[in-house]
Specification:
The structure is a homodimer. Chain A contains 16 helices and 17 strands. Chain A is of the alpha/beta class and about 500 residues long.
Chain lengths: ~500, ~500
Amino acid sequence: MNDLTISLNLKSKTPLYEQIYGYIKKEIQAGRIKSGEKLPSTRSLCRYLEISRSTVELAYEQLLSEGYVEAEACRGFFVADVRGLYRLDGSIQEYGAAGKKEKEEYLYDFTPNGVDLNSFPYNAWRKLSKESLLDDRTELFRLGETQGEYALRAAICSYLHQARGVNCAPEQIIVGAGNDYLLMLLATVIGLDHKVAFENPTYRQAYRLFRNLSYRICTVDMDSQGMDVEKLAASGADIAFVMPSHQYPLGIVMPLKRRLALLQWAGQDERRYIIEDDYDSEFRYKGKPIPALQGYDKNEKVIFIGTFSKAIAPAIRMSYLVLPKPLLEQFRKRSGFLNSTVSKVDQLIMTKFIEEGYFERHLNKTRALYKSRHDVLLSCLKSAFCQSAPPGRQNRGGSGKGGGVFKISGERAGVHLLLHVQNGMTEEELIQRAKTRGIRVYGLSEYYVEPQREPSATILLGYANMSEEKIIKAVGMLAEVWKENETLNQESCKK
Amino acid sequence: MNDLTISLNLKSKTPLYEQIYGYIKKEIQAGRIKSGEKLPSTRSLCRYLEISRSTVELAYEQLLSEGYVEAEACRGFFVADVRGLYRLDGSIQEYGAAGKKEKEEYLYDFTPNGVDLNSFPYNAWRKLSKESLLDDRTELFRLGETQGEYALRAAICSYLHQARGVNCAPEQIIVGAGNDYLLMLLATVIGLDHKVAFENPTYRQAYRLFRNLSYRICTVDMDSQGMDVEKLAASGADIAFVMPSHQYPLGIVMPLKRRLALLQWAGQDERRYIIEDDYDSEFRYKGKPIPALQGYDKNEKVIFIGTFSKAIAPAIRMSYLVLPKPLLEQFRKRSGFLNSTVSKVDQLIMTKFIEEGYFERHLNKTRALYKSRHDVLLSCLKSAFCQSAPPGRQNRGGSGKGGGVFKISGERAGVHLLLHVQNGMTEEELIQRAKTRGIRVYGLSEYYVEPQREPSATILLGYANMSEEKIIKAVGMLAEVWKENETLNQESCKK
């Protein structure tokens, strides 16, 4: 072959050598230039195309490096046998619209799992992400440490110590891609021969996961302080899964006394452990901060789990597990061979995010934001549903029992409140009535893994992802649809 | 308080408003400005500091947004109660050098798990990463689809179809953070009541994981074509874990006939499944490409698993599982609630990496690179250890049996070769002798999960992360230390 008539576009953003490379590659792939055929010499092709020789050389090198041509010393470039080469035509087949499920549209969504993504610190994240990839650091793409990079574990360790009163060394921390994964990993460490007790209602995700992993499971009732320790002891469970900093969904913050009672229970048997899910601990609005259960643990009984998904963004798949030292040994022996599930780049970004103070700022900022939404929702609910209640009596943190038609609880922490309703409507009816106004609310009953003895009508109202204007409007409408009967029976809210 | 004497640095890279914000924040944290105290008005402070008012306003807004001060209408800014605020001092405690384990230093490392990280396409990855974070796309930080984003699954689906002959729809694909995780996930789908058969020797990672998950486990012997199907049937196992495209560590490429026999075995019982680990399928140097086992499966029996960790970089924690349709139903019912383990940003980068042709280029480039290293290693080994062997007889793909002192096998695919040695030295001795020259080599016996009946001395030589120069030098030295006795017994290599 003497010449290749390639029509080059000098104005294109694609460099000339890429155009030549692309042209020849396509010709080879299409079989128009056959295997074994000789390509024109770089000298003749550059003359023919009236471009510099180095441009042609660059194109040939690219073809060479990808295996489309072979160089023979003193003879030139020959088309290789390309049957084994990858040829991905880039056209992604259309598989129908099955992937895009239609979602029901609501104007207002009081989801209790929301996060205000407008607060996500894009600029910082983008800057750190850019920095992390700045140099050709091959180290960053090697397989990392099983438990996560040491620098990140050290940063998490400092954070947990300062913000949550957790006592641990970086050696005890395992970084993983989300709570679900870390709980699966934990299962490989502790083995399946355990009976796990959950609060009822509880965070269904963990409950279902443990059930699927074939654990024996039970639920233990709660009182206003959290899991009932006597009932826990009677249940025969040896692992208790609790959320002391903000029980989900009830929003109970477990008092110190109950925490100590739980620890005492765990200390009574060698096989017992407490899994402390530090859910929503970042957002606490009232009272003195209570250190994590882990901070009081003298007997190496608490397995602590927390996540960045809620504090930063759900799509940041990064959680951390703090193992007590005896389990750490077991982890190394049984599961230390498992590869880390978080990419090193992401770990580096997160390390910088914590070390350079962005995380602190972000936490304070979102907490301030959620607190003002919390305050607005609380005052709206009170004026809409509890007008006649004397001020100062709303802070009891309710158990859902008592005289009023509407009662509020769970207001000390987290990003949702609970509204207990006794106006004759069922939970489902309340949800459906809200829906008629384009408002999505969530019923408490779906969090019960065992049916409630006395079914209540309790609504969860999450505010993390609702602006103050939206909260005001939506609560106004909820009052209209939920208090329709009120003019009839003239009973006002007592709480 | 009337004035705040803040010494501003006009030449600093830190903006003025940040300096003011930082100063006041520190004063508040240190308790030097007390809770309830009034800050100077923005007007008076800007005059005092001789800067623009908007700069001071920006600083106050920042303090406000992070909860350090509170604004009261018509009265001004007051220091808030900051006891509940996060204060991470950023100083990471030193926990001793325990995190940094000393590694033994080798000049040459023939690791069979290597990847040439110099080939990692930094520029493309950096560009795509930057693009992905370019706009403030909040969507990117919302929780994604359980199975992975649809666009990525569609891209993987096209790739698998074109490059591996896998027949599936994006609906059948689950993206996860590494093979280990996906196998754990698979366990939640199929349940624990199975007996899993592994090849012997095998990829220990998967074997140990299944054992830890409490599965009943057995091993099935291999012949030169792979897992012995008759012995598999006799083992009572209902799940077979195989690596047909390149058995690890033996390097056997399973012929079509054996693949069909395996599929037939699976078709004979409803409970039976084959897990096809498509290990190292990207790197194949000889013979026509054989489609994946999954591509021949008519009975929905093959669970296919593959990873980007080997083809791109180990720290890219991304693998994919292709479920047969009946298991897909089961996945949705039993495990569909589990959150994805890969961040959406990473998923977006990978989608672009595939769709925009970078993956194809990268695959061809690394394959060409590994092929030339493979060729160099093979010819070095032949001339160093098998000088008297007639040319053309080395391609049998050995079982390790036969007459020669040194025999090579596993040369059709992957990134390592096997050298079978019968010169009177034990495997351990061969490894130790290599070590005296700073060369790290790996013994086959560590891959046997059940002891070999006739222990052999077989060395794995990985070349992915070795330059051609290094390969030449290292093989020369290996010949010196491994052939010391040869002058004595004068027996040369027969293969």
